[in-house]
Amino acid sequence: MSKKKGLNAEEKRTCMMEMFSETKDVFQLKDLEKIAPKEKGMTAMSVKEVPQSEVDDGMVDCERIGTSDYYWAFTSKALRAGTPQAEGSELSAVGGKPEACRPAEEHRES
Q1: Whole-structure pTM over 0.90, yes or no?
Q2: According to the UniProt record, where is the region Disordered (predicted)?
Q3: Which domains does the chain have, with CATH numbers?
Q4: Residue of 15, 5, 65 whose CA lies nearest to 40
Q5: Is there a contact between 33 and 48 (Cβ–Cβ < 8 Å)?
Q6: Which residues, listed in sequence order, are joined to residue 63 by a DSSP beta bridge?
Q7: Per-residue pLDDT tens over the stretch 47-105
Q8: 102: which DSSP letter?
Q9: What is the distance between the terminal CA atoms of the chain, rounded to a whole angstrom?
Q10: Starting at the edge strand that comes first in sequence, how are the strands of the sheet with 68-72 ordered?
Q11: Whole-angstrom distance, CA of residue 19 vs CA of residue 25
């Protein structure tokens, strides 16, 4: 029986950016804490620091409206900035998605 390997920080950031680009939606932190563990296999406890680190690096936008923080990352901004993630060069090299970001049912061995 093998132990499930956790995601490192870079894999978490990649998975979170994938989630933003796939959904093209705006999220509150509590929404990210619910969705990321289900769809990307991240632990709920580690979700809080990922969006903030992406905001610090300019990959994700954040705006405080009232008492809530809203996070989003649209591909149009990434295309204008000319980042490799927007062009798909990183993902196309591995066949669509990095192994770590695939849902848990895709990780199962035959």
Answers
A1: no
A2: 84-110
A3: 9-94 (1.10.10.10)
A4: 15
A5: yes
A6: 70
A7: 888 888 889 988 899 999 999 999 998 877 766 666 555 444 444 434 455 555 655 55
A8: S
A9: 13
A10: 27-28, 68-72, 61-65
A11: 9
List the structure tokens of 16: 């979170």
Q: Encoding tokens for residue 110?
A: 């035959």
pLDDT tens-digit readout, 4-31: 566 788 888 888 888 888 888 999 989 9
- Please name the amino acid found at residue 48: K
Amino acid in position 29: L
Q: What is the CA radius of gyration of the chain?
A: 14
**Residue 49 near residue 43, CB atoms below 8 Å:** no
Q: For residues 17 and 96, what is the distance between their CA atoms, to the nearest angstrom? A: 14
Q: What angle do CA 17, 18, 22 make, to 5 degrees?
A: 120
Cα→Cα distances 40→18, 20, 51, 68, Å: 9, 12, 14, 24
Q: Torsion angle, CA of 96/15/100/41, rounded to 10 degrees?
A: -130
Residue 65's DSSP bridge partners are 68
Are 37 and 47 in contact by the 8 Å Cβ rule? The answer is yes
